[in-house]
């Protein structure tokens, strides 16, 4: 459970599961914001990286707090109509890592704000963007601790060599997400 700032009382956490083209994505949060997004661990991904019409809530309460509604809407758009994600509100986040002032928080917010759909940056480039050009390794640590993957797009951070690097959801999922974004960006550009 996450403690809220008002008096330190625990949140009333809700959980929703989204059935996506890459499997079941679990989202946890409260009235204040999204706590975390848990990605499926996969050994085989669905064929192709095209948009899929299958992206729907398969488990969860009837009444979702607004941040969870916004999060599910954003993820549904990401998979099914990615060109619309820029017009949707990013849900509020309510995870301790994103509330206290730290280099990790700065890196994650920089990534969310500055690295757009279909783009990729190296760990070093992201360190530069976040204001510490010598902190590429710390950027890697920030990516590993990201509680809100996909929305905070740690999959867009790659090695300077061009290799995709590691990913909490696994190598196949990272490559699928990068391919999905590249294909969707090309489709929109045509």
Automatic annotation (TrEMBL):
Domain Methylated-DNA-[protein]-cysteine S-methyltransferase DNA binding, residue spans: 105-182
Catalysed conversion reaction: a 6-O-methyl-2'-deoxyguanosine in DNA + L-cysteinyl-[protein] = S-methyl-L-cysteinyl-[protein] + a 2'-deoxyguanosine in DNA; a 4-O-methyl-thymidine in DNA + L-cysteinyl-[protein] = a thymidine in DNA + S-methyl-L-cysteinyl-[protein]
Cofactor names: Zn(2+)
Enzyme Commission no: 2.1.1.63
Main location class: nucleus
InterPro entries: MethylDNA_cys_MeTrfase_AS, MethylDNA_cys_MeTrfase_DNA-bd, MethylDNA_cys_MeTrfase_DNAb, MethylG_MeTrfase_N, MGMT_N_sf, WH-like_DNA-bd_sf
PROSITE patterns: MGMT
Root EC class: transferase
Keyword line: DNA damage, DNA repair, DNA-binding, Metal-binding, Methyltransferase, Nucleus, Phosphoprotein, Transferase, Zinc
Methylguanine DNA methyltransferase ribonuclease-like domain mapped to chain residues: 20-91
Superkingdom of the organism of origin: Eukaryota
GO biological process: DNA repair; methylation
Molecular function terms, GO-annotated: DNA binding; metal ion binding; methylated-DNA-[protein]-cysteine S-methyltransferase activity
A Pfam family it matches: Methyltransf_1N
GO cellular component, one term: nucleoplasm
Localization: Nucleus
Family: Belongs to the MGMT family.
NCBIfam families in alphabetical order: ogt
PANTHER family reported in the protein's UniProt record: METHYLATED-DNA--PROTEIN-CYSTEINE METHYLTRANSFERASE
Name of the protein this chain belongs to: Methylated-DNA--protein-cysteine methyltransferase
Organism, scientific name: Brachypodius melanocephalos (black-headed bulbul)
């Amino acid at each position: 459970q996450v403690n809220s700032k008002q008096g330190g009382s625990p949140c009333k956490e809700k959980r929703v599961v989204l059935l996506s083209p890459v499997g079941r994505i679990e989202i946890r949060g409260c009235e204040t914001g999204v706590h975390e997004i848990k990605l499926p661990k996969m050994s085989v991904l669905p064929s192709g990286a095209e948009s899929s019409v299958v992206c729907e809530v398969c488990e969860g309460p009837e009444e979702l707090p607004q941040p969870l509604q916004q999060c599910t809407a954003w993820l549904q758009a990401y998979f099914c109509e990615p060109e619309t994600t820029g017009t949707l509100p990013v849900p509020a986040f309510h995870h301790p890592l994103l509330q206290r002032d730290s280099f990790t928080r700065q890196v994650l917010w920089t990534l969310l704000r500055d690295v757009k759909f279909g783009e990729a940056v190296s760990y070093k480039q992201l360190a530069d963007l976040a204001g510490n050009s010598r902190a590429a390794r710390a950027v890697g640590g920030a990516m590993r601790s990201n509680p809100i993957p996909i929305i905070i797009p740690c999959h867009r951070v790659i090695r300077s060599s061009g290799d995709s690097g590691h990913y909490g959801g696994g190598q196949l999922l990272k490559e699928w997400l990068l391919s999905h974004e590249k294909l969707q960006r090309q489709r929109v550009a045509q």
